[in-house]
């Protein structure tokens, strides 16, 4: 899945970096937003602990969310399994806005990939420019 993401998404966007450098090693920030598209909404499994460190707990709390409630930034694909083949049914997101739970802004969470779509946001669009 990682190589597919590199070949189909990162390379056409002008990045020759490897996914291991994601999301910080690109010389510029590539913004991908996650949009809840499921008609019944989704659940955010909010992370507890230090990002990127072993022993991170997910689901503290588990919060229902709909597309208009929040802004989510895609961080990475996620799978619980480290040794068996990975399905990547989850994605890790950073909560940038959450109307119903402003206390969760800035935290990372997991959300089921099947409940969302991922969109590239051009830097000029993110800064309000014409792009």
The chain-level mean pLDDT equals 75
* Number of domain units: 1
Using only CA atoms, what is the Rg?
15 Å
What portion of residues is helical? under 10%
Terminal residue distance: 30 Å
Globally, the shape reads globular
Classification by helices and strands? mainly beta
Strand count, sense and barrel status of the largest sheet are: 7 strands, antiparallel
- Detail the poorly predicted runs: 24-28
Work out the strand percent.
Answer: 35-45%
Strand order of the largest sheet: 3-2-6-5-4-1-7
Q: Helix and strand string, N-terminal first?
A: HEEEEEEEH
Task: Provide the fold topology.
Layout: H1 2-10, E1 31-36, E2 42-48, E3 57-65, E4 70-78, E5 90-98, E6 108-112, E7 116-121, H2 123-126
Antiparallel strand pairs: 1-4, 1-7, 2-3, 2-6, 4-5, 5-6
Characterise this structure:
With 131 residues, the chain is mainly beta. It has one domain. Helix content is 10%, strand content 39%. The chain has 2 helices and 7 strands. It has helices at 2-10, 123-126; strands at residues 31-36, 42-48, 57-65, 70-78, 90-98, 108-112, 116-121. The two termini are 30 Å apart. The model is unreliable at 24-28 (pLDDT under 50).
